Structures are given as C-alpha cells and as structure tokens.
C-alpha cells in the first residue's frame, strides 16, 4: 500500500483533489480477534503484527524521523503520554504508514523520576481527574488514522513497591489494577474501535490484571534480557488474553553483573544488537499469543542511557539499528553499516589512573565497508554524581590501535567510551570502567589509619552512609566522611605525636568545600591556621604547607554545594 505522502507525489490536479478527503477519513477499526491461544490483531479486518519501536524524538521532529522508521520496516511506535501536543505525531505517523500505541501516564510509574505516590484506595480526586482526562484525549483522537491502541499506565504495579510495603502494597496493587479497568471501560465507551492495554515491568503484574482488569483487551509488559521467559510465564499463569511487549532489547543495567570496579558491566555493541534479534525471535516464537513488540529505543539522546539503549545516539546509527531493521524484514543489503569494536581495554583500569594523567585505551576495530575510521574518547561520571552526560576528551589516535586521552580531574569510577565513526552517519560504541585516583604524593601519609573525629557525620543509610570521620583516613576511595548540611564543619585527625607536615591532599566527593582552612594543634584545642583556601572547586586539592602539630584539621567555612562537606580521603604528608 502506498503511504499518503508518496501517493500525493504521484497524483496530480483533479485526482489529487479527489484523494484529499481520504486523509481526513475516520480512523481504522482495530480489533483483537480469535480464540484462546490463536489470537491476532487486525486493522480494518487485515492481520497486523506490531513491529515497533518506542518513540524518543520530540513531536516537532516527527517529519524528520518517521520516514526513517518506516524504512526500517517499523509499523508502530509507542508513546508514554497523550495530550494536546500529540496530533502532529499521529498525523505524521499515519502519513508514513506507521501507527501509534498511545500512552497515558499514571503515577507512580516504574522508573526514576516517574512521579509521586498515589493512594489508589483513598485518592478519589486523582482518580476522578484521570478518569476525566484520558477519555477526553481518546475522544479527540479516536478517529485519527495514526492511532493503533490505547495504553494505560507504565510499570506502576511494580512501581508501587517504592511507595508501600507488605499488606498495604498488596491492597494498593489490587486498587491500581482495578482503577486501570475503570479507565479501560471508560475508554471503550468513548472509542469502541481501538483496543486498550496496560504496561507493567514484569509478568508478576499480570495476575492482578487477570483478577481486577477484565476489560483490558490484551496485556503488555516491558522485558529486556528476560523477554524470552514471558512465553512460559504466560503459559504457567493460565491467562486468557494475548499480549504485546512494549519495551525490550539488550540486557539492562539492572540485569548485568558488576565489573572489577564494582559498576554494571555494559554489553558490547555486538551483544546489544544480538539482544534485539533474540528478543524479536522470542516474541514471534509465541505464535497466536504475542501480537508483536515495540522495542526500546528509537532515541537520539547521546548520554549514559542513550548509549546503553538508543539505536541512534546523537543521530548516528549503530549495529542495533541495523539489527532491528533486519528483524523487521526491511532490505539491508545495500546498507553501509557501522564500525565494529571487537575488543576494548583501558590500561590500569582497576589499579587506578591519577587525575589529569594520560589514559591509554586499546581497541580492535574493523569496518565492514572498508571505510576510514575516526575515534573519540568520552567520560561519564554517572556512578560518581549521577551526571549522565558524556564529556568528550581530547583524543590522540596513536595509529597502532591505541588512543590517548586525559583522565578527569575528580576521583572516582568513570565510564570510558570509545566512539568509532565511519563518515557515513554510523558509529560503533564501546565502554569500560576506569578508576581515577589522586596523584601520587612524595612522602609518607601520616594520617592514614589514625583516629579521626568530626563536628558531625551522616548516619542515614541512603547514599552509602553511615559516613564517619574514620572513612576519610582509611586509604580507600570508595568510602567517605560526610557532614551535616551546614557551615562550619570540621574533621580532624590525631597523629599520635607532634609531627612536621609538608603537604595535604584532599580527595573531595561532589559535596566539596569552596572555602576552608588547614589547621594544626598540639592539644586539639588551640589551632594555628597554616593554609586558607577560598576558591575550592571540588577537584583533588594538593596543598604544600609548613606546620607542626599532633592534630591536623580541615575546617570548612563555605560549602561548594547545597549538601554538606564530603571527603573520600584526608591525606597528611610528612
């Protein structure tokens, strides 16, 4: 079938005028048909298998990206919200022969930042608001040919565990899924021509839907590395409805083992591509029950999560893009495909590289099309400060399969990324972790292992605490002292005897001191200031000092963040 845009290009004059009203015709009739174990989705009576991707770009970019999606063999995209801004996306999708699983968001959702907690037993105001809001948009768009079905909620049955526990959690899950059913009934009253589903994060939600949501036409689940277990879960659960998979792909951060630096070991580009191939095979392998999938994710964000999951981070296509295109049956025979990094190592990744020093990265990279390859090294501090940005580093290609870049200026475990580009809009990306440590100091660290005390320390177990004073002198860069969130605060160490010191090294957490004093004392009561800092930036502070005392103290006078003072290490050198 020729898409409306293509058809318009082929028609002229009066024929085009005759065709124009068809673009405004009522939407399709979409049904779940068949019987137990032998279902199918139909659009205007024709079988329809969901070959989809979750949608990431802005609605404003729909015209830019939907033709590309169609060229991949994609017939469906999935969204998480539907409102007044959705019309251009629905229209552009329809013009490109693509349909939309249109989402409605319910709190709490399942992921970080997904929203506040709702009491589904007592919060009638919230429920009434949603019962009015969602059907309003269903009524607005029900005749739009871009709509495939409605999807109520995302991962909230699981996400409620972040709000409640025990018997209350059970009661809330029953109340939530019952409320989903209330919405489904309301949507069906407004729009009898499109199915209604509800997505959750694991098949453990399905028994609640089976019990409480009979008005759903089909179930939906987000499953990544575990997607191939969904078939057996469905069979063992005795369900009487089919399902779609609304997010899937390679193993997620929560599904992989930690590496030697204690951070999740991200799959290789090749493994990610194979993850999509495997997922599609398991979905299509559940014939008559699994009605398709919207795999995750057609997104362009070029950050920590974007590199893990996006098919085109920064708009550049990677192996996973072509794996999905092949899975959906599109022609890939003439495609120029990305460079493949088959091996990547980072020198001294676990021993540690000093801040600001050279980092040497080795790769084995080939390009299937023989294209010239250029390289870039980037760093992410996500596992230090939750900043998901990828920061480019000045990169030297040594011409022997190795690259050299400068280590970041703060300590901690970073992700090191190598991007290999072919000049044709394709990119290969690999990543490994790297421990960044303070520069080596000449002399003896006389504070390590000595008794330490502080004006305050955090005890709350969230954030990795208790964070007592001794953590700052234990010689480890994965423990820290953290103070109350106020000024002033101090940390002092007892060297045991009067000692001449010549250097102090401070390894700050992101909660650093902008202003502080280094002080010495013979009795722990009367202090002499031997160094004053007023322009601290949170990097490693290497301070040459001259002083003598049994006690050495850092006295924080101005915090550099809204938090307290937090030190990984307080090194005092003689």
From TrEMBL:
SUPFAM superfamilies: (Trans)glycosidases, Galactose-binding domain-like. It comes from the Bacteria. It catalyses: Hydrolysis of terminal, non-reducing beta-D-mannose residues in beta-D-mannosides. Residues 440-461 are annotated as: Disordered. Residues 444-461 have a biased composition (Polar residues). Gene3D superfamilies: Galactose-binding domain-like, Glycosidases, Immunoglobulins. Pfam families: F5_F8_type_C, Glyco_hydro_2_C. Residues 429-574 form the F5/8 type C domain. Its EC number is 3.2.1.25. Keywords: Glycosidase, Hydrolase, Signal. Residues 1-25 form the signal peptide. Belongs to the glycosyl hydrolase 2 family. This is beta-mannosidase. It comes from Streptomyces drozdowiczii.
């Amino acid at each position: 079938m020729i898409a409306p845009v293509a058809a318009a290009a082929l028609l002229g004059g009066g024929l085009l005028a005759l065709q124009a009203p068809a673009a405004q015709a009522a939407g399709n009739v979409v049904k779940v048909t068949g019987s137990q174990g032998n279902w199918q989705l139909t659009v205007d009576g024709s079988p329809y298998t969901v070959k989809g991707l979750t949608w990431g770009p802005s609605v404003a970019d729909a015209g830019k990206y939907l033709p590309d999606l169609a060229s991949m063999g994609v017939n469906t995209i999935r969204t998480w919200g539907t409102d007044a801004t959705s019309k251009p996306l629905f229209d552009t999708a329809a013009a490109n022969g693509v349909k939309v699983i249109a989402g409605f968001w319910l709190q709490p959702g399942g992921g970080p930042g997904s929203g506040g907690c709702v009491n589904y037993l007592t919060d009638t105001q919230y429920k009434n608001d949603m019962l009015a809001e969602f059907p309003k948009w269903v009524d607005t768009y029900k005749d739009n040919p871009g709509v495939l079905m409605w999807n109520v909620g995302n991962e909230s049955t699981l996400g409620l565990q972040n709000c409640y526990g025990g018997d209350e959690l059970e009661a809330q899950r029953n109340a939530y899924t019952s409320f989903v059913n209330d919405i489904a009934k309301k949507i069906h009253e407004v729009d009898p021509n499109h199915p209604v589903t509800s997505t959750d994060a694991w098949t453990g939600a399905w028994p609640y839907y089976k019990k409480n949501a009979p008005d759903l036409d089909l179930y939906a689940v987000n499953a990544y590395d575990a997607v191939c277990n969904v078939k057996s879960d469905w069979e063992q659960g005795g369900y009487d409805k089919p399902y779609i998979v609304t997010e899937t792909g390679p193993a997620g951060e929560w599904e992989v083992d930690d590496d030697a630096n204690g951070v999740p070991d991200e799959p290789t580009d090749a493994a990610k591509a194979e993850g999509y191939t495997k997922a599609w095979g398991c979905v299509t392998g559940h014939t008559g029950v699994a009605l398709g999938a919207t795999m995750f994710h057609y997104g362009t964000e070029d950050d920590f999560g974007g590199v893990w999951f996006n098919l085109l981070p920064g708009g550049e296509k990677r192996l996973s893009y072509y794996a999905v295109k092949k899975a959906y049956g599109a022609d890939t025979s003439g495609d120029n495909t990305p460079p493949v990094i088959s091996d990547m190592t980072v020198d001294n990744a676990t021993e540690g590289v000093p801040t600001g020093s050279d980092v040497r990265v080795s790769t084995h990279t080939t390009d299937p099309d023989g294209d010239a390859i250029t390289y870039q090294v980037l760093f992410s501090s996500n596992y230090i400060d939750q900043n998901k940005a990828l920061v480019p580093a000045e990169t030297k290609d040594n011409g022997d399969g190795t690259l050299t870049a400068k280590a970041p200026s703060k300590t901690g475990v970073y992700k090191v990324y190598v991007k290999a580009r072919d000049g044709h809009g394709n990119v290969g990306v690999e990543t490994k972790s790297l421990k960044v440590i303070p520069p080596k100091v000449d002399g003896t660290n006389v504070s390590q292992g000595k008794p330490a005390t502080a004006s305050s320390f955090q005890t709350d177990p969230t954030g990795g605490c208790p964070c007592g004073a001794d953590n700052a002198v234990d010689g480890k860069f994965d423990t820290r002292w953290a103070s109350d969130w106020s000024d002033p605060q101090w940390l002092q160490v007892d060297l045991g005897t009067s000692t001449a010191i010549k250097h102090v090294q401070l390894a700050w957490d992101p909660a650093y001191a902008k202003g502080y004093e280094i002080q010495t004392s013979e009795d722990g009561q009367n202090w002499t200031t031997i160094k004053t800092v007023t322009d601290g930036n949170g990097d490693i502070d290497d301070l040459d000092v001259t002083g003598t005392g049994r006690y050495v103290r850092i006295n924080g006078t101005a915090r550099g963040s809204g938090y307290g003072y937090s030190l990984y290490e307080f090194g005092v050198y003689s």
